[in-house]
Specification:
mainly alpha, 555 residues, two-stranded antiparallel ribbon
Amino acid sequence: MKKVSSFTLYPSSFPYTSLDTPRSIARAATITSFGNLSSRVIGLVRDIVKSYFFGNGQAASAFELASNLPTQFNDLLAGGMLSSALVPTFSATLTDDSNLKQRESLGRLLGSLIGITLLFLFLIITLLWVFAQPIAAFITGGVNQDVAVVAGLLRITIPAILFLNLSGIFAAALHARRRFAITAFTAALFNISMIVCVVLFEGWLGINALAIGLLVGSIMQMLLQIWGLRGIPIRLSLNWRHPGLLQIVRLYLPVAGGLILAQIGVQISFIVASRISPEGPATMRYAAQVVQFPLGMIASAVSAAILPALSAISPASHNSNDTPAMAENRATQNSVSFNATLAQGLRLVLVLIIPASVGLYALALPVVGLLFERGAFRAASTAYTALSLQAAVPGLLFAAIDQPLIFAFYARRNTHTPTLIGLASNVFYLLLVGGQVWLNANNLRPFSLADLVLANSLKTGFDALLMGFFLSRQINGLRSFGLGHFTLKVVAASLGMGVGVYASMSALQYYFGNVGLLAHAVVVIGAGVIGAAIYFVLGKLLGLGEVSTLLSRRI
């Protein structure tokens, strides 16, 4: 490999080292999966607590608008660099954590990066803090929100930009040290901090307790990661010519454009949601939180599981000792194996996510009621959020298909195509939203919050369609694996399940009602169990092998 100073460039992927045995990789994957699951569970608890105290009203929406700003800066900066630039560069610097010289080299790079980050973010945070009032007026869209309240929340949440981005840098360094346990649970610590602050200070500070919880959470997760970096001699500097920094910039720039446009789309979503109704931003966030559960447990898990296998057997993989004939033969074998592995991953996603989407759509109202309907979150809030959840369900299905396709591109050492497709899908989304805003402004069609959420779902569908089209051209399609016929069987079984879920839900609501925690719990659990039984029976009858695999607990 070509070397620049003390840094090895990895244009495709970095090689396995003595730290990367199959056992250590499996252990890291297990820790990360458990950390992600705990984070999602505690994140759901956080939203339950938030809904209890603040519902989905104006105050809750004001917090969502204010908290979105530091999240966006994190996604755009350190979050966007984490996998594309920071981890590859840090991992190239530290291949042996016991090597003092390598730890010192990483410390110098971290010192330069942190020093420049501190200077840059200090200037950004100062400007944002000074102009919090006009920023609040902009992000609220000028209606349905108290601009002064949003500005006050912004002045609390804006400093979190610094700690969130430093956390992203430290997380990448911890990945390089193979200390995955710490990074896996930082999000859980963040959510716990918010829960504690709300419970302790809500009666005294009101909605400001949530904003303080966000700030405290960002500080706590940063401090935890600093503790994990002990042994790395970090010396702050402003050495912007450090070769590691130049490499990070080179790796990050190709994806920066897509990230910027994506964040513009996110901000427009919140502005439009705020203009639609005072409850819009908070309601949209609650619906998204529900959708993230099956997406993370199914699509993200399967995608993460098949990525190492796809990377190892990608046609882009090669052995420098191969002769031309051996290389050609290896590429052919890898191509077949690659397609088979991807097809199997897609089958697993489809057999789980399609029935999950149908069931969630049918049970949207009792699911939202079971999770959130208590305290300040009333029955009317449940009904409004359920409509947004139903509009988000198609996005769940599309995102679940999209993730394995994106990972397939990454496994083929191709990050440019997903970036360009992301740009196209965000433009598509902006056109959809712009068109609906125009129709509403001209009194041709009212623009509801469900319409806005559905536009985001269609954006994800457009992204998945483009991913599938361009990937199919690269791998010569997956027709030989019968995915089309398989999908029709899954859809048929899922629709049959959906009829059973709706019928049982109606019967249970007739006897137990549709208001109250107990009623929602009985409906969700009862209809869910009946629906799952119907799906597994229909799957067996239709010859869905993956259903048999699930029943026999072999996955």
